[in-house]
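Writing this down once: the sequence line spells out the residues, with the fold written below as integer tokens. This is how one looks:
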Amino acid sequence: MIPVSEERHQWTVEEVLALYEMPFMDLIWRAQEVHRKYFDPNAIQRSTLLSVKTGGCSEDCSYCSQSARYDTDTERERLMPLDEVLAAARVAKDKGASRFCMGAAWRGPKDNDLDRVLEMVREVKALGMQTCVTLGMLKSGQAEKLKEAGLDYYNHNLDTDREFYGQVIKTHTHDDRLDTLDQVRDAGINVCSGGIIGMGESRKNRAALIVQLANLPKAPESVPINHLVPIPGTPLAENGGLDPFEFVRTIAAARITMPTSWVRLSAGRQEMTDEIQALCFLAGANSMFYGDRLLTTGNPDVERDDRLFERLGLKAV
């Protein structure tokens, strides 16, 4: 039986699979009912993501163009200077983004690199924007330094469920990711964690990912749901063909199981039609990446998003 109330802590894979298997219209209705209890259904939070250090990562994440193990078009770059980061943040704020996210292609930050990122966090925060970083796995004490600098969110996706994880990543474990999330939570920073859909996983794997996120000691405040963007040169370059309604079902499952979280449309949105994006918003997505680029992949241009907001009567928050 699917639980009558979504206000609970522990979900099972069977229960979330039952959500996936509901008639589509019933699932959307259920998700929209939950969404309206906690959020304005016509308000979308907008974040901009900037790669502050691109390429050369030692990890073997099969979807990632930034891994040094794969032959992709992504070039290895040094950490961006502070003034360039701040210029990008000002542009993002002027265009209507309320959160500025900074990503670095590291297994984890070295202390001297972290010091430079801390300065970025402080300066972006001073612009009046929410701050988020994704820097890989953290060592003891690093989360506390980020908190002291004023960081609002730390992103560290689980990517997929524990069972499928080893088919995507072998250089670190699912538990390594959970350890970083624990450090972030213990430091008092908001958790941003989600996954990637369309990597060859089963529906059960997708349901198990949602369960793992929802059953964390506290659900992530922000849950990015990414649609795989196949990158030439990576092991998942030939993956694709996920039914778009399955992606919408994943959004709905995230909304129902994590009713107070921001559920974000993330990578892959450039390839979605406006109609599928509208269904995702109806299913409970209320956050999106806004701007022409996400780390190393494309994103709908600002003008297209502004037109979509106008057509749907949405407002930015």
